Structure formats: structure tokens, C-alpha cells
Amino acid sequence: MEELRDLIFTYKDFPKKGIDFKDVMGIIQSPEIFRKLISKMSLSEIVKSSEAIISIDARGFIFGSAIALNTSMPMIVARKPGKLPGKIIEQKYNLEYGKNTLSIQEKAIEKFNSFVIVDDLLATGGTVECVASMVRSNCKEIKGLITVVELNSLEGRKKFNFPVESMISY
């Protein structure tokens, strides 16, 4: 989907010096391209082999919810601290520009055994690794990751022992 490249903007030194932030918001502002992207992502074997979607806060929610709607699959969210009620699974992780924590509601994943992780961008893989670790700590399976953009030079996919599908790579 090379037409995606024209809709992904790079912001140098954001959110801090030395980071080239890839902004995918142009994709969702182009309804026809967004529709084609979601259709393609929905047809992924990783998605088809999973019982539910786990979308990562925040831009992953946009793509995950669209895939969930398109496939009639349930969607669970991995959120930043203090955003989810009830009993949660929580884990800290490293970003390429700092540290953070993610949480998943225990109740949300209990009736499913296999998940596809959906996010907008794969960089170093720390966020996805965090989600996978939380899911596996509850004896559940990650079938794979599907993402819009992958930054190949950061080699994030090397951290995973599950398939990774990216719609576009840099």
C-alpha cells in the first residue's frame, strides 16, 4: 500500500530531540485509503487465527476498533496507567524515549485464549513486548502483531517469537 507513504508525515525531534515521529493521522483523514487499509489488515491470517484483538493506547485504538468492526471480533484495550477500572494486569516497559506502564483488565481477556495485537507503529518493540508479556502471564497466546508502520532500522520485530505484519516499512 504505497499510497500510505504520502499520508504519513515525519516530525523531527518529537517528542524529544533525536526522534523522528511518524504521524499516521493523515491516513484516517483520507477515508478511501483508510477503508482499503482496514480491509487489508482485516484479511490478515494473524487476525483470522485470533479470538480477539488487543489494541494499544492510543493510536492503536483507531486501527484496532476499525478492524474489530470490520471482522466482528471483540477488542480489548491496553491502556496507560489509571485509565481502567477493576482488577488489572499492569507492567512497566521502556520506550525509545522514556518509560511507561500499560494495563489490561483481567476480566476482558479471561474468556479468550488467543489474541492479535494491533498498533499504529512498531519501533523498538517495547510496547508490544509489554502487552505480550501481560497476556502470556495469564496463560494466553499471542498469534501475532499487525501494525500500520514499521521502522525497520530499530529491529523491533526481533524481540518476538510470533508473526509480525506491517503495511508499510521505513
Main sheet attributes: strand count, strand direction, barrel closure: 5 strands, parallel
Number of helices: 6
The rounded Rg comes to 15 Å
Strand order of the largest sheet: 4-3-7-8-9
The structural class is alpha/beta
Percent in helix: 25-40%
- The tally of strands reads 9
β-sheet strand percentage:
25-35%
Order of helices and strands: EEHHHEHEEEHEHEE
Write down the overall mean pLDDT. 96
Describe the structure concisely.
By secondary structure, this protein is an alpha/beta fold.
Overview of this protein structure:
It is globular, with a radius of gyration of 15 Å. The two termini are 13 Å apart. By secondary structure, the chain is an alpha/beta fold. Helices cover 28% and strands 34% of the residues.
Features:
6 helices; two-stranded antiparallel sheet; alpha/beta; 28% helix; 170 residues; single chain; 5-stranded parallel beta sheet
